[in-house]
Amino acid sequence: MYSKKVLEHFQNPHNQGKMDDASAVGEDGSQACGDVVKFYLKVKNNIITDVMFETLGCAAAIASSSALTDMVKGKTIDEALKITKNQLIDELGGLPAPKLHCSVLGVDALHKAIENYKDQR
Amino acid sequence: MKKIYLDHSATTPVDKNVFKAMLPYFSDCFGNASSIHSFGADALTGTDKAREQVANYLHCGPSEVIFTSGATESDNLAIKGLIGALRERGVEKMHIITSIVEHDAVLEPCMEMVKTGIEVTYLPVKANGAVDAEEVRKAIKDNTVLVSIMWANSEVGAIMPIREIGKIIKKHNERKLKNWNNTRPKERGEKPTPIYFHSDATQAINFVQCDVNWNYVDMLSMSAHKIYGPKGVGAFYVKKGVPIKSLQRGGHQEGNLRSGTYNSSGIVGLGAAIVQLDKKNQEKDNKKVAKMRDLLVSEIEKNIPDAILNTDRKNSTPAHAHYSFPGAEGESVLLALDLEGIAVSTGSACSSGSLKASHVLIAMGIRTEIAHTSIRFTLGKHNTETDIRTVVKKLAPIIKRLRKMNPVYDK
């Protein structure tokens, strides 16, 4: 059902945890829907130097959060904003059709974190 | 890695004795049980024997057993078949009573009936997942023709008060008939249509003696693969005199009720599986399975904080232990266990394709966010103490890890 890559990220997620000194934080989803994703960003000169995530959700939600942290690390915030849901799904080697909304959630949480960063400036 | 299977409500392995009984019916006794020649007769001997075995278990006549492809077909035959037959007799404006926690094989045919003008009442359940027989009494209307209540719930394992419901229906039918008999022929109109009682016993057969006579059941559905028999075969008990319109036409098998060549190997397997459920054997296996479940519950209690047991052990099959692990999403738990070789199931939305949390858990009053974190363990007669201890040993760190990753769980 899931690609090897999804299972790898699910078992050993990258950049997972809390960040106490984040420059910005963004959260999306709801417990009633079963998925919540939270992104922590550290930004220096518009470049995302560090990123962490916390996720409640299915394997696809966890794996897509993890893969997204890899994709945004080292990117400028504008570059990060350009990452699409489809790019993330491709990066994961595809997702089962009913799971597609899980990947949107990570992207939305990331966007909220970037908005949060921009609001502060 | 030794794999551990704790999903016996989904399906069970075919018992070795069942498999042995089936084997001759593939290549040796391969005849069509409807053929007159000796090849056919050999196959018929097998299906006849199985019919008696099923009838003995259900405590009904062999002619009241119809072989089907499984409980889904039996459920469809019960609901659509009864309504169709009554409609042909000119009965109009019919009413069905069922429960909100039925399997989709009952709920969807009911919804289909709604589209044809039938009224359906969906009974609620108590917090333990069981229907209250009193609710059935209250829901009965003058035009009620069918009550369909499952014998045991597949998700949490709650046992329904089938005999109590059966008695309520029987008394109601007797009263109605008596009133009719006591009314002058000129004034009383057509003889009243009784209420027929159907029960989907798929999840119960393995653990409860489903005696249709003792429990006043008119129709019953079951599948072989939930009782260590083969997949793709089941039975439909229909009491003599209950009107049923067949759903498929063709070869006139089963008194025209269910056309289609007899699945003789499967039917023989069903018979061989049901024989193993004689009272003594069943009690012995129930005890063994209940002991393993109690071990699972006490191990989880000891090793996993904040775990909620949704199964009411005082009123459930001995095999079910349905849990919520708040903070750890069910599908993630299922998948993490699967990567350790352990098979369970979940009522989480994310596993269902429909993205909706289990209707059974919601009906029991469990909050959606808790329903998303549920895991169903269903034990079988081959599970060992080592299996159970291994499962909890693997499960505890998985729950801990997922809770730690959760941004909204109070760690």
What can you tell me about this protein's structure?
The complex is a heterodimer of chains A (121) and B (411). Chain A has one domain (4-120): Alpha-Beta Complex (Sufe protein. Chain: A), CATH 3.90.1010.10. Chain A has a three-stranded antiparallel β-sheet. Chain A is an alpha+beta fold and 121 residues long. The longest helix of chain A has 21 residues, at 100-120. Chain A has helices at 4-11, 59-72, 77-81, 85-91, 100-120, and strands at residues 24-30, 35-44, 47-56. Chain B is α/β, with parallel strands linked by helices and 411 residues long. Chain B has two domains: 16-275, Type I PLP-dependent aspartate aminotransferase-like (Major domain) (Aspartate Aminotransferase, domain 2, 3-Layer(aba) Sandwich), CATH 3.40.640.10; 280-405, Aspartate Aminotransferase, domain 1, CATH 3.90.1150.10. Chain B has a seven-stranded mixed β-sheet, sandwiched between helices. In chain B, strand 3 (95-99), helix 5 (104-115) and strand 4 form a beta-alpha-beta unit. In chain B, helix 1 (16-22) runs antiparallel to helix 9 (264-275), helix 4 (71-88) runs parallel beside helix 5 and helix 6 (133-139) packs parallel to helix 7. Chains A and B meet through helix 1, strand 2, strand 3 and helix 2 of A and helix 11 of B.
CATH topology of chain A: Sufe protein. Chain: A
What is the general shape of chain A? Answer: globular
Give the rounded overall mean pLDDT of chain B.
96
- Beta-strand percent range of chain B: 5-15%
What does the radius of gyration of chain A come to? 13 Å
How many structural units, i.e. domains of chain B?
A: 2
Q: In the CATH hierarchy, what is the architecture of chain A at level 2? A: Alpha-Beta Complex
Note the total helix count of chain A: 5
Give the assembly state of these chains. heterodimer
Instruction: Kindly provide the radius of gyration of chain B, computed on alpha-carbon positions and rounded to a whole number of angstroms.
Output: 23 Å
- Largest β-sheet summary of chain A: 3 strands, antiparallel
H/E element order of chain B: EHHHEHEHEHEHHEEEHHEEHEEHHEH
CATH topology of the largest domain in chain B: Aspartate Aminotransferase, domain 2
